[in-house]
Protein 1
Amino acid sequence: MEISLDVPFVLRVLSEERALAQREIRELGVLRAYENSRERHDARIAAAPDVGTLACRSGCTWCCHFSVDVRAVEVFGILDFVERTLTPEEKARVFSEIRANSARLKDMDDMERMRHNVKCPFLSAGRCSIYTARPQTCRNYHATDAAGCQASYEDPENLEIDPEFAPLVFQSGGAHVDAFTRAMREQGYDTNVYELNSALAAALSDPRSRDRFEAKSAPFKKLPGDDVPGEFEDLDA
Ligand code: SF4
C-alpha cells in the first residue's frame, strides 16, 4: 500500500522522542528508558488521527504467527517482564517454545522465515501474555481489515499479500521506534535487529549477554544481527 508521507508529523515525533530518549538513557539507563519509551509508544499510537480505522481487536491473533524482529533492549525488557509476571509453569512452557522455535528457525533467512507461520511463544489462550512488554514490531503491526492478516496466515508463501494499514498510525509508531533506536545508537548501544525466538534463546543460554549489552558491546556472540536503518531515520539526519 502506497502512503503519502506527512513529513512535519514524522519530524515532530522523531524530534520529541529522540530528545526524551537521549536524556532518559543517560539518566535512567537504557532498560529503564526503554520501559518509559514503550509507554509513550502506546500513547502515541492511541493518539494517531486514524487510529479509529484499525480492525485490530483483543483475541485476533493471525499476526502472532508471523516473524518478529527485535533489538537487544526489547529482549531484556521482555525477560524482565516474564520474571515479574509469569507463573513458573507458564515460564517453563514459554522457554521451551522459545528453544523449539529457535531450533526450527535457525537456518532460515528473513525471507524464508516470512514464508513460515510460527506461533509466538507468548501467545497463550488467544492472548499476548507479555502485552505490556510486547516487541516494537508488534506494537506497530496493525491492519484496517483483518481479512488481509488472515489471508497472509493462510497462504504464508505468498509475500505479495499486504494487509491494508492506517498511514498515520504507521508513521507515528515507525518514527517513535526510529527515534529511540537512534538515541541508543548515538550512546553506543547495540541496535542490531534479531529474530525474536533466536535472540531470546541466546539471552537465556548466556546470562552475561545482558551485562555485555549494558556495557555497550555485542550482546549475542554467535547470533548474526543486522543494523538496518529505520524507515524514517534519514528525515532527521
Ligand atoms: S509478543 Fe504478543 S503481540 Fe507479539 S507476536 Fe507474540 S503474542 Fe503476538
Note: The chain has a mean pLDDT of 95.
Protein 2
Amino acid sequence: MVRFEEPALSDRAAAAFLRDREVVTEAAAAVTDLLTLERAVPLVVRSCDGDGSSYDLEARRIDICYEEVFEARELFAQTGRRGNTDDAVAAVLLETVFHEIAHAVVDDLGVRTASREEDFADQFAALMLLRQGAAGERRLRAAADAWNLLAATAENADGDAEDEHSSDRERAVTALCHLYGSAPGRHQDLVRPDVLPSARARGCAEEWAAVRDTLLKTLGPALREG
Ligand SMILES: [Zn+2]
C-alpha cells in the first residue's frame, strides 16, 4: 500500500528520512486501525517536481512528496526553534499524510463533509494525531508552528504584514484551538495573544467536541468496532 519511488538525486536524504522515520507507513497503519475502507488506496512517496502532496481523484492514489521534508526543515531552520527539528519535520509530514488520506477517505465513503473538504481533512489529521496522546499533541503543535512560519514567510514576501487572515494562519489557529480544546488543562501555555488568543480559546473545548462528533459521524460507516 505504501510505495517509495526512486528519489531524484536532490531528494535522497529526504527519502531516507521518510523511510527511517516510518512516517508514511505509520500514518497508513493508524488509519487502517481506525477505518475499514472499500478499496486500499495506494500511497506513493516520490519526487514531485514542483507539485505538492495530493490525492489524485482519478487515479485514486495519494502522492506524498520528498521535497516537503526540505521545505519543512527550511521553515524550522529560520526560527532557532528549541527542541528536535527532526521530530518537528516528521510531524509536519505525518500531518500531511493524514490530511491527504482524509481526501481519499471522503472519496472512498462517497460522503459529503459538513465543512469544506479541506477543513475536514485538517480536522481528520488533528483527530488522528490527538488519538496518539502526548506524542500526537506535540506533533499537532509542530504542524501548527509550521503553518504560522509559512504565514509569516508569505507576509514578508508580499510586503504585506497587515494580512493576518492568510489561510495558513487560520489553519494554525484552528489546529491550536483543537489541540487546546481537546485538553484545556494541559495546554494553558497555548493561550497567548500571539498563539491562541483567549477570546478564541474560550470556545475551543466546545468547538473540538463538536468537530470530533461530526467527524466520527461522517466516518461512521467505516469505523471499526470497539
Ligand atoms: Zn487537502
Note: DSSP finds nine helices and four strands in the chain.
